[in-house]
Design brief:
The chain is of the alpha+beta class. It binds ligand C2E and magnesium ion (2 copies).
């Protein structure tokens, strides 16, 4: 200031002054702020380089529209420049310049600062007003900032969140590998985006779409992480609702054809892999049209809903009930063990649907059902094929008079119906007392005396006559009827045995066959205890015949059951030895008393050297295991003689007697005196 004044005073320059002026020039040209001198009209009397750069033009002798009233605080003006709009701040001070009143103006370009202020303001507005949650963390993933939406979504306030680890929000639904992958993507690309389950403060887990970015400063250093997320639970819910609508029947909410096809596809794949069978039942309601016609469509709809619920409640959870439209339903039965299983279900469905239905109006309606069945893999290997074959079978079932099921193949239909009929009759046989016990003598090989008997069941059918056990035991096993049948013969045998004992006949050992199912799935020990107590037959006179197949399933459990039976004092025999795995070493595991050699080994004695050797070996080895040996199915003298020479203990067979009714057996006993 001093120098300018000196200059403006018009004094002749001294050397010192010239040097000072040169320095001043240099200062003015070096300074990055603009320096101008204008007269009171705004005409530029002096400008430095920086001022011209700020205005982006030559200034000397031009007029500037700049308010020159002095002020101590900087003022702002807009700059109109060739390169665009800008901002500057300036301050002016009055001076005297070459004998006139002038102003010196210091001016600074603040365009950059203004722009970045504006951007910051915008960013801050976005940060606070966006509906996406935003969370900023430091490099240790500690939360340093959150926005309002963060609080809206997570329910954590800013104060609760800041300083906490970002894992505050973890739902626990993702494993460590998931997070490891996420962070390695961020490390690699600076970014990660995906769907993630997080947890709100209240504990609720929700899905969010999250995008995480690494923040890098100008020096290229990682400084923060920014996570932006949207709560997509609404979206998901809508999505799944839409998905449900696309795959279900709106009236019954049961799966529709589309879903059936995809389930079938999947079921076929699994059945192929596990070598399993599946059945498709196509159900059509009989007389449904009558309900619609006489009670109206609302009643019809109600009935369809009731039928849908009924079908669903009767099936296992793995089975799929669908409504294809109209009065057509399908049932997909997965993992069935034989074709008849499907017939059984079909029959149950037919019976259930034939029951009267009570509608809300109080009206009672009756309908029926016809069912077509196709099986995988027998009748088709694709969903479409199976549907077609079931449909064809359904058509035939209806043609035959409704209210029945039909398989795609005639043969299966026939055998399934025969079996079901047999089952119905067998149930009746049990309650009507049509079962009989026959006794086959067990004879001492050396003395030739009857020392016991095997009880063998017969079915005295009023129409078909005497039915042998091989015709119905397997069915009884499958249907669970074996338990009442088995209990009946046990009771009957002990009751008869006690009568013979009381009659003073020589004490006998009475053997009863126990089927695998009965052995594993009933409380045999309890049943036997009860029967022995009730009949008064001594435990040590009762022998239970078990098969290898019963013992081999769930071996450890089998040993336990045997031990408990053994503790009751009953005897345990292994039936049909030689038919199954037949490992004598294996038998050591089981607490057995006797071994019955299967008839197939006895049959070819004395013609087959092999069978004779095997029989001899079985007898010898069984004896070393301290088991009594009984030969089954002895029919000839030659067989008996062979058994005598080999030291076999007992035998059963037609050579002595076939199985006979109790009175006849008693006669045999009395005859031997
Ligand atoms: P199993 O226990 O091996 O019974 C021996 C079978 O061989 C009996 O047939 C008997 O009549 C027959 N048999 C005996 N000696 C001879 C012979 O010299 N020649 C020929 N050809 N056969 C002979 P059955 O009574 O028809 O019984 C067949 C199978 O049915 C029995 O084989 C047994 O596994 C089963 N069974 C019979 N009754 C019952 C029962 O009450 N409960 C259970 N779970 N199964 C039974
Ligand atoms: Mg037997
Ligand atoms: Mg046998």
């Amino acid at each position: 200031m001093l120098l300018i004044r000196l200059l403006s005073d018009g004094l002749p320059p001294t050397n010192q002054m010239t040097a000072a002026l040169t320095n001043l020039d240099l200062i003015l040209e070096t300074i990055t702020d603009g320096i101008l001198v204008v007269d009171d009209q705004g005409t530029v009397l002096f400008s430095n380089n920086s001022a011209e750069q700020i205005f982006d033009r030559k200034l000397l002798n031009t007029k500037l529209a700049i308010p020159i009233s002095p002020s101590s605080v900087p003022q702002e003006i807009n700059l109109i420049r060739r390169s665009g709009l800008g901002w500057a701040e300036f301050r002016s001070t009055p001076i005297e310049w070459e004998n006139q009143q002038a102003y010196v103006i210091g001016i600074r370009d603040i365009t950059e600062r203004k722009l970045s202020d504006e951007r910051l303001l915008q960013a801050a507005t976005v940060f606070e007003s966006t509906r996406e949650g935003v969370m900023i963390t430091d490099l240790k993933r500690c939360i340093t900032r959150v926005n309002r939406a963060f609080t809206d979504i997570t329910s954590y306030t800013e104060a609760e969140a800041i300083g906490k680890s970002a894992s505050l929000l973890s739902s626990g639904r993702h494993d460590a590998a998931f997070y490891a992958e996420m962070w390695s993507s961020i490390a690699l690309t600076g970014h990660w985006q995906g769907e993630i389950w997080n947890r709100r403060k209240c504990g609720e887990v929700y899905p969010e779409l999250l995008s995480i970015s690494a923040v890098i400063n100008k020096a290229g250093e990682l400084t923060h992480y920014v996570g932006v997320f949207a709560d997509i639970s609404q979206l998901k819910a809508t999505e799944s609702r839409l998905d449900f609508l696309a795959h279900h029947d709106p009236l019954t909410s049961l799966p529709n054809r589309l879903l059936l096809l995809s389930r079938l596809d999947h079921a076929i794949e699994i059945s192929l892999r596990d070598n399993k069978m599946l059945a498709l039942l196509m159900i059509d309601l009989d007389r449904f049209k009558d309900v619609n016609d006489s009670f109206g469509h609302l009643a019809g709809d109600e009935l369809l809903q009731l039928v849908g619920q009924q079908l669903k409640s009767r099936l296992r959870s793995i089975d799929t009930v669908c409504r294809l439209g109209g009065d057509e339903f399908t049932v997909l039965l997965e993992d069935i063990s034989q074709p008849e299983d499907a017939a059984r279900v079909a029959n149950e469905i037919i019976n259930a649907i034939s029951e009267p239905w009570l509608l809300l109006s109080g009206k009672e309606v009756r309908i029926g059902a016809s069912i077509g069945i196709s099986l995988f893999p027998d009748h088709g290997t694709t969903p479409v094929e199976l549907l077609q074959q079931a449909d064809t079978a359904l058509y035939q079932a209806k043609a035959e008079g409704r209210g029945r099921f039909k398989y795609f193949s005639e043969e299966l239909t026939r055998s399934a119906r025969a079996r079901m009929e047999l089952e119905v009759r067998l149930r009746r046989a049990i309650t009507h007392g049509e079962l009989r016990t026959y006794y086959q003598p067990q004879v001492d090989v050396h003395s030739g005396r009857i020392v016991g008997a095997e009880a063998l069941i017969r079915w005295q059918d009023p129409v078909h006559g005497l039915i042998p056990p091989l015709r119905f035991i397997a069915l009884a096993e499958e249907t669970g009827l074996i338990t009442p049948i088995g209990n009946w013969i046990l009771n009957e045998t002990c009751r008869q045995g006690k009568i013979w004992l009381d009659a003073g006949l020589p004490p006998l050992s009475l053997a009863v066959n126990i089927s695998p199912n009965q052995f594993m799935n009933s409380n045999l020990e309890e049943i036997i205890t009860g029967i022995l107590a009730e009949t008064g037959f001594p435990a040590e006179r009762l022998e239970l015949e078990l098969t290898e197949s019963a013992l081999m399933q769930r071996e450890a459990e089998a040993i336990e059951i045997l031990n408990r039976l053994n503790a009751l004092g009953v005897r345990l025999a292994l039936d049909d030895f030689g038919k199954g795995y037949s490992s004598l070493a294996y038998l050591k595991l089981f607490p057995l008393h006797a071994l019955k050699i299967d008839k197939s080994f006895i049959d070819d004695i004395p013609h087959h050297q092999d069978d004779m050797e095997i029989t001899a070996a079985i007898i010898a080895m069984a004896h070393t295991l301290r088991l009594k040996v009984l030969a089954e199915g002895v029919e000839t003298q030659a067989q008996l003689e062979f058994l005598q020479t080999q030291g076999c203990d007992l035998y059963q067979g037609y050579i002595s007697s076939p199985p006979v009714p109790a009175e006849q057996f008693e006669k045999l006993l009395r005859a031997q005196g």
